[in-house]
Amino acid sequence: MFDEHNEITDPILVRLRNLDKLREKGIEPYKKKFVRTHLISEVRKDYENIEPGTETGVRVSCAGRILALRTHGKATFADLKDGSQKIQLFASLNQLGEEEYELFTNLDIGDIIGVEGTVFKTRKGELSIKLEKFEILSKSLRPLPEKWHGLKDVEIRFRQRYVDLIMNEDVKQVFYTRSRIISLIRKFLDEKGFIEVDTPMLHPIPGGATARPFITHHNALDMDLYLRIAPELYLKRLVVGGFEKVYELNRNFRNEGISVKHNPEFTMLELYQAYADYLDMMDLIEELVTYVVQEVKGTLEFEYQGIRLNFNRPWRRLTMVEAIKEIACENVSFETDIETLRQVAKKYGADVKPYYGKGKLITEIFEKAVESKIAGPMIIYDYPVEVSPLARKKEDNPDVVERFEVIVAGREIVNAFSELNDPIDQAKRFYEQVKLAEAGEEETQRFDYDYVRALEYGLPPTGGAGLGIDRLVMLLTDRYSIREVLLFPHLRPEEPEEDPVIERAKNDDEIR
């Protein structure tokens, strides 16, 4: 913290001292407001093409963060970056005067300042702003890291995402792309006549998917509530009520493990269309995803993590049983005896429970032996009834339901089906789920009496689909881990480090 000459070496303490010097001069280092006339991107757009050595005489007011300072006697160059782009500043002793020039040269990297000056291009061709005046808007007390992009401990990047965004422009672009993807999805569905709705995040019964919920307690009602694992059952209630095309873009919460594919909270698109089935959903999802891919990538063919993907329609479609036979070379079906299915599932590493039926075993074989080998996009359809308690049975094959998933690069990005609208059949399926829970299965559907009651009023034939937004963003930004496309992914708690700024706050007699 101090060297042998009793000089402060801790960079945060040095900046705290600089903060004190500003206040001693009567300069408030945390301003309320600054009026900008231009974003830096606008300055660049308007004047990037002027000739080297040109003085425009155009006065602009910009603001941003100082990322570099280069002092050469009576002239100093700096890099100023706002939320859009970066530009060079040119400060001179003659223009600013001795006091202001010294203040500028003593800025710390990371300080946020507002500037006013004229636009010019240096003889070397660098577009710049010649400073006439500036003011400190927010003093940076913690230095930016010199090396950040190559950090091996990526948890530091995710935990301090604010620094990650300052230091890495490509990271910021991921989240601009994410925002654009969501806007494109809304545009597509709105133009198709869908309406966006909001349904509850706190559910009295966790439903709409098979997953472990997060539990909380409502004091006034003295009842447990669950963060929603899916909005499905509420959205289908709306279809019962007469909303024939609905969608929701929002968060789901599942109390499950964290991996490159999973985060406890994630963003989903769920949509439902009356008088449609899973074949209609296949066409709609193909159209939606190819539209978004084309708009974002400018092409339907690109590489993701070294895998060549081709989103041109139509996508290949295989039943689950066909996919197992073609890709894993396992000739299994519902006619295969259950002991053989158990042995095949175990061969691929499935944790086979004694109460698993044929449908569950076939699903385990697909997930362990096939899914990760699919480059896709590929539509896998006709899932077993046993693993699909909310989907309609196929009329010519009672062992399966009208359900499909879209697999891309070995990962499911869409789950969809013809919705089960028979209240008696739905009640039976719920009872079967209750029995599975009693047998020890941890992830099952609860019995939702009100949802059955809603079906008793009549749910029209309906197709529904859920699309994982995070996984779609991963594909379109070439990111391997879901954490790379979440601004603030969940991490283990950290031990607070010693912080001179917090110590100052605790010990300072004057609370500013």
Keywords:
9-stranded mixed sheet; BirA Bifunctional Protein, domain 2; 512 residues; 2 domains; 5-stranded mixed β-barrel; alpha+beta; OB fold (Dihydrolipoamide Acetyltransferase, E2P)
Give structural notes.
There is one protein chain. With 512 residues, this protein is α+β, with helices and mostly antiparallel strands. It has two domains: 11-146, OB fold (Dihydrolipoamide Acetyltransferase, E2P) (Beta Barrel), CATH 2.40.50; 167-328 and 370-485, 2-Layer Sandwich (BirA Bifunctional Protein, domain 2). 34% of the residues lie in helices and 26% in strands. The chain is built from 16 helices and 19 strands. It has helices at 11-24, 40-47, 93-96, 98-105, 154-159, 161-167, 169-191, 232-240, 278-297, 320-327, 338-347, 358-369, 423-439, 449-457, 469-477, 500-507; strands at 55-72, 75-81, 86-92, 112-121, 127-138, 195-196, 202-203, 215-218, 223-227, 245-253, 265-274, 301-304, 307-310, 316-319, 378-384, 393-394, 397-408, 411-418, 462-468. The strands form four sheets. Strands 6, 10, 11, 14, 15, 16, 17, 18 and 19 form a nine-stranded mixed sheet that branches. The radius of gyration is 29 Å and the shape is elongated. The two termini are 25 Å apart. The mean pLDDT is 91.
